[in-house]
Write a structure and sequence with these properties.
Structural class: alpha/beta
Number of strands: 34
Strand order of the largest sheet: 8-11-14-19-22-25-28-31-33-34
Helix content: 10-25%
Radius of gyration: 23 Å
CATH superfamily of the largest domain: Hexapeptide repeat proteins
CATH class of the largest domain: Mainly Beta
Shape: flat
Largest sheet: 10 strands, mixed
CATH topology of the largest domain: UDP N-Acetylglucosamine Acyltransferase, domain 1
Number of domains: 2
CATH architecture of the largest domain: 3 Solenoid
Number of helices: 5
Length: 311
Amino acid sequence: MKFTQPQTLEAISQLIDCEYVGDSDFPVLGMNEIHVVEPGDIVFVDHPKYYDKALNSAATIVLINKEVDCPKGKALLVSDDPFRDFNKLSNYFKPFRPAKNQISDTAVVGEGTIIQPNCFIGNNVIIGKNCVIHSNVSIYDDAILGDNVTIHSGTVLGANAFYYKKRPEGFDRLLSSGRVVLEDYVDLGSNCTIDRGVTGDTTIKEGTKIDNLVQIGHDTVIGKKCLIASQVGVAGCVVIEDEVTIWGQVGITSGITIGSKAVISAKAGVSKSLEGGKSYFGIPADDFRSKYKEIAAIKKIPEILELLKKQ
């Protein structure tokens, strides 16, 4: 998320009431999660396991809960609770604004687009030309849809990221201020849920087709001309490259990459990145050749046990 106007390190420190390390006029241009940070961004880190990753990232301002040596060319915001303060900044720069109409006055709808009754179109939504939005679709604030997009009934674009911090009193939600972006010729079935990015974009690229009852997590990027069948669940921060086929009820863990033209068979559980151009099945998912060898080996276990008894 980029700020509408550049900020200074001192001004940001005052907003969250914390100490800072660096020039008071050090420029702050936005805030992002670590996988999408750019120079000028704030990134937060609150666990020693990830200190080095945050300090060495592209972010030039690190919101951190420990006094550490500041890398050259960067600045620090030293907070007792970076998670809380990142939320404070999200709420300040991107506050939630209640809707006043079913279709917001700030929404832009392209020529030839049809929006069926009982849809909700939020603030600052942009919908391209010749789209069809069927009844009971909810498109939350800031979503962007390209041309010739079709969305079927009950689908929700832009719900909060499923991202929580466990505290003694319960779970604390990380506020979501990112967007959902659908490129041209994307089709979404009924009752899909596409979560918005935390600070960046959840993106579905041109020509991808998604069946009913599919969940796409925050900040995930799905490539061009992918096919995703019913009841697939994709966690946050996944990269699915172009022309991937995913069949029904596949579950995909967070932060991995599925290579171009991979095919994942029904009910597979994907727990690691998969190379493109291969077919996969099983739990955990593996390529067909390896998986069939594994199955063949398992079938030999009774025979091996019988041989051991005779010895």
